[in-house]
Structure formats: C-alpha cells, structure tokens
Design brief:
The chain is 17% helix and 37% strand. By secondary structure, the chain is α+β, with helices and mostly antiparallel strands. The N and C termini lie close together (6 Å).
C-alpha cells in the first residue's frame, strides 16, 4: 500500500463546500494510467487532475472521472492552476500554456477585488443538431416534453467535450429534474458518450445571464456535475449563435449548482475568431483540505 496525497479545491466559488470539487495530485508522472484511474475512483469527485511536466507547454494536466479519462475539464483546470499559482509552483507571469488531450491551451491569471481568477481558452465551438426523440429526452430528465423550449434548437455542443444543450422554458423545471443517466447513450444516439446539459434564460440571481444543470454520461461513474466549465463555455457560444448575437465580446455569466446546494458562477467570453466562435471561461477557486488515500500496489 502507498499513501497518495490529494488536494481538494472547490472551483467557481470563493466559499468552501460550494462550486465544484476537484481533486489535485501533484507529481502525476509517478503514476501509470491504471493507477491514475484507481486514484480518481477512490477520490470520488467528478474529476481528479494530475499535474505532469510538459515538453511543449508550461505544464501538462490529465483529467480522470471515477470511470474514465477526459480530454479536458474546465473546473479541474481552474482549480489546478489556481492551486499551483497559490503554492508558488508556476513561473512568475500572468500567461501560461497547458498541455491537455484536447490540445495546448492558453491560460491567464489575474486579480480582481483581491481575488485571483483563472481564465482558460477552450477549443472553437462546434455544434451538431440533435435528431432524436424529444419525448424520450424529456423523460430521461424527469420532465414533460412541453417543458423543453421548442423555439430553440436542441444541439450537441463542444469546446473540447461533447454535451447536449437542452433549452428549458422555465426555471421551475430544474428543481424537478431526476436524470436517468443509464438511458443517455441510447437517446443520444448521434454521440452516445455525450453528457446532458439543460439550461434556461430565467435565473435565480437576476444579475446573471443563464442557468444550467449538468448530468454526466453514465460512463463517467457520476450522476451530476455541480458547476461545469466546459459545458458553460459552449453554452455561452450557443447563446451568442442562437439567442443573442450582440453578446459576442461581452461578459456572459452562468449560474449553476443551486438545486444541489453548490451555488457557483462561471464567466464566459465569446469572440469571433477566423469564422469560428472562440470561447474563454474564467473563475476562481478555494482551498478546502488535503487528504490521503491508500493505493494498493
């Protein structure tokens, strides 16, 4: 048995116990792929990140859910970079690059109102039309078909990870949602590994733009992701493309997690870049604690 130290940070919040928890393991190069997966399973958070040296960027980050490795994770990136910066483990500059399986991505750190924020650039937004059953989709969320907003398209979206963006008419539907994750791969036949991200324009906090929840692919080994960076990023791109084109180059704020007591905020900025919608997200994080797990050798 070997003891592994895991740092726990909550992303997209300044309050412990809110936002989205992420596990962080330093010196990730010590572990095999199989060991990383076992560590993530024992940690049990939606994502655990492993920091490794990189030959092409400032650092390399790998992301594991309890069920499998992810190409990219927004909240774990924010938490990891925030942690490394606060511990003095990054070069003394505001601009960085990270190597991920989704590509090499720029990172920026800045201070606002005595709070450290991390901005990460995501991949250009991609969209694909959902052509499956709206009735089955609604049922998988525990909703009626009439609660889905038919005036807006149901779209698969990705800025690194595919999720299905489902427009919902009213905020009141969100507290009723009871996802049947095991049914997602059959219903999402075009992209069976996608997660499911319902959203609406009614919000709890009147100062923000959009409200969302995020339900995991059953392959991830989790049910719900409290506050999602990648899904919020592509949701912002959807907002600019299908709802309000004037929001390009303007701040978009997403709230998430309120239904499960994990209130968090994601700041999204969308720009037109070479015919694509480029997406950046930013947020802060808070240190919670450090714990150890025992890894069987």
């Amino acid at each position: 048995m070997s003891s592994i130290s895991v740092l726990h940070y909550d992303a997209f919040s300044q309050t412990k116990g809110k936002g989205n928890p992420a596990g962080l393991v330093l010196e990730g190069e010590r572990f095999t792929d199989d060991e990383m997966q076992k560590i993530a399973l024992q940690v049990g958070f939606n994502e655990t990140s492993f920091v490794l040296p990189s030959e092409v960027a400032d650092i390399r980050i790998r992301y594991f859910t309890p069920g499998h490795e992810m190409n990219l994770c927004g909240h774990a990136t924010i938490a990891t970079v925030y942690a490394l910066q606060s511990k003095g483990l990054l070069p003394n500059t505001e601009q960085y690059t990270i190597e991920t399986k989704a590509g090499i991505l720029p990172i920026r750190i800045y201070e606002k109102d005595s709070t450290t924020y991390v901005t990460m650039q995501q991949l250009p937004a991609q969209f694909k039309l959902y052509e499956g059953s709206v009735h089955a989709l609604a049922e998988s969320l525990g909703l009626e078909s009439a609660e889905i907003d038919s005036s807006l398209p149901i779209m698969y979206g990705s800025t690194g990870i595919w999720t299905l963006l489902v427009p919902i008419k009213k905020l009141s539907s969100f507290s009723k949602m009871k996802p049947i994750n095991r049914d997602f791969p059959t219903i999402l036949s075009e992209i069976p590994t996608a997660s499911l991200h319902p959203f609406c324009l009614e919000t709890i906090d009147g100062s923000v733009d959009m409200h969302g929840r995020h339900f995991s692919s059953p392959y991830s080994g989790t049910i719900e992701d409290p506050v999602t960076g990648t899904a919020s990023g592509v949701m912002g791109a959807y907002y600019c493309k299908y709802i309000n084109g004037n929001a390009i180059d303007k701040p978009i704020i997403v709230e998430q997690g309120q239904e499960i007591g994990k209130d968090g905020r994601v700041n999204v900025n969308v720009k037109k870049v070479n015919g694509y919608l480029g997406v950046e997200i930013s947020g802060t994080a808070v240190y919670v604690d450090e714990f150890t797990i025992q890894l069987k050798e």
